[in-house]
Amino acid sequence: MSQEGYDKLVAELHQLESVEYPRVKEALIEAREKGDLSENYEYRAARREQGKLLGRIRFMQRVLEYARVLDTSRLAPDTVGLLSRVGMTNLTTGSSMSYTIVSPHEANLQEHKLSIKSPIGRALVGKRAGDTVEVRVPAGIQQIRIDSIER
Predict the structure, then answer these.
(1) Which residue among 23, 28, 141, 142 is least crowded, i.e. fewest CB within 10 A of its CB?
(2) Which strand ranges, in their side-by-side order, compose the sheet holding 132-137?
(3) 82-to-25, 32, 40, 100 alpha-carbon distances in Å
(4) Does the predicted model carry a pTM greater than 0.70?
(5) With contact defined as beta carbons under 8 Å apart, do 102 and 113 qualify?
(6) Closest Cα to residue 142, out of 123, 126, 125?
(7) CA distance 124 to 146
(8) Average model confidence (pLDDT) across the chain
(9) Are 38 and 16 in contact (CB under 8 A)?
């Protein structure tokens, strides 16, 4: 994963552990003080939120435990791979676009970051500028030409 993606995950985990978890814990204490737990909706809602939060924290800890930050200087500059910025043209629709190929945890289409595990990401990996690939996506088969590759 990229250093930027790793840093974002670390910051989000810190936010969850130091801000969100204490807030949920306090809500649980307040709800518990309101009496009968069997009919206490606030208590059940706080427990549910606590469970979701703990699940997210554990997931992020596991991702960070096994994450490796890539050294971009060791990546091939002329082929598409992780952390490549790829300019491409969809020959089926005629539209041009540019995406950075990232790990699944960093993918965000609004930021033009495409997962390496997505159908388009998988089809582009290992290709060079000028290559054309066929990709099966939910909308059908698309033909994509790689116009440029940057690191």
Answers:
(1) 141
(2) 113-115, 96-102, 85-90, 140-150, 132-137
(3) 39, 48, 49, 8
(4) no
(5) yes
(6) 123
(7) 8
(8) 87
(9) no
pLDDT band at 117 (very low <50, low <70, confident <90, very high): very high
- Asked if 46 and 31 touch (Cβ cutoff 8 Å), the reply is yes
Boundaries of every domain in the chain:
3-66, 72-150
User: pLDDT tens across 4-59, in order?
Assistant: 888 989 999 999 999 999 999 998 888 888 776 667 778 888 889 999 999 999 99
Residue 24 token pair: 């949920």
Domain 72-150 falls in which CATH fold? Chitinase A; domain 3 (3.10.50)
What is the total residue count of the chain? 151
- If one counts every other C-beta atom within 10 angstroms of the C-beta of residue 25, the result is 13
Q: Which fold has domain 3-66?
A: Helix Hairpins (1.10.287)
